[in-house]
What we know:
The complex is a heterodimer.
Chain A: E1 3-7, E2 11-12, E3 18-25, E4 35-41, E5 48-54, E6 69-73, E7 79-84, E8 93-100, E9 106-109, E10 113-117
Parallel strand pairs in A: 2-10
Antiparallel strand pairs in A: 1-3, 3-7, 4-5, 4-8, 6-7, 8-9, 8-10
Chain B: E1 4-7, E2 10-12, E3 19-25, E4 33-38, E5 45-49, E6 53-54, E7 62-67, E8 70-75, E9 85-90, E10 97-98, E11 102-105
Parallel strand pairs in B: 2-11
Antiparallel strand pairs in B: 1-3, 3-8, 4-5, 4-9, 5-6, 7-8, 9-10, 9-11
Amino acid sequence: xxxxxxxxxxxxxxxxxxxxxxxxxxxxxxxxxxxxxxxxxxxxxxxxxxxxxxxxxxxxxxxxxxxxxxxxxxxxxxxxxxxxxxxxxxxxxxxxxxxxxxxxxxxxxxxxxxxxxxx
Amino acid sequence: xxxxxxxxxxxxxxxxxxxxxxxxxxxxxxxxxxxxxxxxxxxxxxxxxxxxxxxxxxxxxxxxxxxxxxxxxxxxxxxxxxxxxxxxxxxxxxxxxxxxxxxxxx
Lengths: 119, 106
């Protein structure tokens, strides 16, 4: 069974750096074709794609956030970490990680983690 | 960036209705188009990948089709559990982009 789960702070202050961890099971990020992506959703708004890390360590990132985003493998083999610098209240959102499947869609999603940016 | 324009943004329907949601890409995406369903407070779930490939467990009343850069999600007979928000997403190029969503309500 494949699962993913996001974890991290629920509240960050403006200008701080956000670090979120996606912990997954049931697949390996070392397997050819596998990717884990991050997507966010501000309250009441649409989904926004942030970044993706592939099995071969390719790491495409949203150009509009490129200077602020870093996606990487975690310290454990079953983790992916998203770092976003210089947080602003407009970054308040639910952040999801998801498994990129063979058709390049996001087959399985984590439940999401709500992040509020406020002083 | 490729823009994905969904229409309508919301619709009201009744159980048993046939519902059609359209997603138009701003340029060719070579059928790298996927549909997700999201219920309030929940993560999205993948319904259909690459235009028309129904995911395991998704009822056959959901179908997807394409015509040029216009993609359509059809629910043949709306059921109570189908009331949700639907998103299209392209995976043809970076950045991946989603439509703005279509809320299906009673």
